[in-house]
Amino acid sequence: MKALSLIAGALLTAQAFAGPAIDKEFTSMDTDHDGKVSAAEHASGAKMMFGKMDANHDGKVTAAEMTAAHQAITGQAAKKSDMPAADKIKAVDSDGDGVLTADEHAKASASMFAKMDADKDGFLSKQEMAAGHAAMMKKQ
Fold it and tell me: What pLDDT is stored for residue 19 in this prediction?
């Protein structure tokens, strides 16, 4: 369970999923406005987030870039209880180089989606997304 939490926390790093923040994130990912987020919509949202975190557009996200992007993406400062960016990266850094690549991020996003899809229907409800992110964004 600890590994799952680390993987998921690494993905949508900059999101503090409570109240208006989850509403904003869910709405932005639900591009077909059907009240649920598909795996494809989730992957697309994760790709956009990676682009926002990759400040120098080199195809990699450092812990400093991830930390700097947090407030801009979520609209709120990181909490002390949130997992540090370096730990989020470490959890999915498959080559151990200390940075998050777009491929590592995409693979972790797919894993995160599968874990959050509690009822295994292939979609995330707003409640599934909120519950999943709330659990995964805490320090382990």
Answer: 64
Domain of 10: which CATH number?
Answer: 1.10.238.10
- Domain hosting residue 16, numbered range: 2-136
Q: How far apart are CA 36 and CA 70, in angstroms?
A: 24
> How many independent structural domains does the chain possess?
1
**In sequence order, which ranges of the chain are alpha helices (DSSP H)?**
2-11, 20-29, 39-53, 63-74, 85-92, 102-116, 126-136
Distances (CA, A) of 11 to 1, 26, 89, 90, 114: 16, 15, 8, 11, 13
Predicted TM-score (pTM) of this structure: 0.78
Residues 6+ apart with CB under 8 A from 92: 6, 7, 10, 11, 100, 104, 105, 107, 108
